[in-house]
Amino acid sequence: MLERMLIGINISLFLVGIxxxxxxxxxxxxxxxxxxxxxxxxxxxLGLMTSLLGAGGVYYINVLxxxxxxxxxxxxxxxxxxxxxxxxxxxSINSNxSINSNxQIANNTVFEDANSDEETLLNYAQLYYxxxxxxxxxxxxxNSLLANNPLALTNLGYMYANGVYFQQNFEIAxxxxxxxxxxxxxxxxxxxxxxxxxxxxxxxxxxxAEACENRNVNVGIFLAIxxxxxxxxxYMYISDFSQMHDYYYSLSDTERIELIENMxxxxxxxxxxxxxxxxxxxxxxxxxxxxxxIDNSVAxxxxxxxxxxRSIEALDExxxxxxx
Length: 324
Known about the structure:
single chain, mainly alpha, 3-stranded antiparallel beta sheet, 11 helices, 57% helix
């Protein structure tokens, strides 16, 4: 309301100024007396300044209004991303990190935004992920609209598998991956195989066999590259990847286990300092080097090794970013 009044005042000033200019110019051309001419010139100048002031006021108010509108739009967008009332109410994740019988996150609630659809929700989840707001990611993926979306299911599997926001839980990750695999999503297969290989989980040989049965190309590429590293045979052509499926699937369980064991190697990842002897595991081991003094405390210097799987990068395990 105030802005409209100001615009009206400025328009009035502009019109009054124009009238003064016209009257002044007419007076200058008609009046002979010097004093009268000076008065009309002054009137013309005053009218010109008044009209410019009015026009400038209208322009300034319009610019200010446009600026304020832009600010409001930005604030509204940020508020939509961060305000709790626009995000799924409550925590979409059960406190015990369990999944209901439908392998969906419990407490599903749709966005209050009337424009929400699968693509919109996926974009919001990925914006949250890129901003490292993992709670926001989890809440969006808890939306019932994404309960059967293979991309959302695969990304939830990735988050559980790698302990992103959720406590690391391979069983729950596998349930999400399996649901996405049932929907025909190849990336879920590759992520699942990578999870088993990265964390050296039991029955890895059977999971790879399932991927071979599904003719997953990247699993074939992984096997071909790995076999090239641990044997004398070189796989040169794309057809070899298909042959690798057949070869691996023809092995016995014992032969597969032996093959997978040969895929791993101990990689030196550098020196670490520990005040207590670090515990060794199937994935990490340490060599004691010497003792050192740190702030008058004695600590041990160790060389750390991590057990890595060869060529696992060929599986391209990842959180899927698919923003258009």
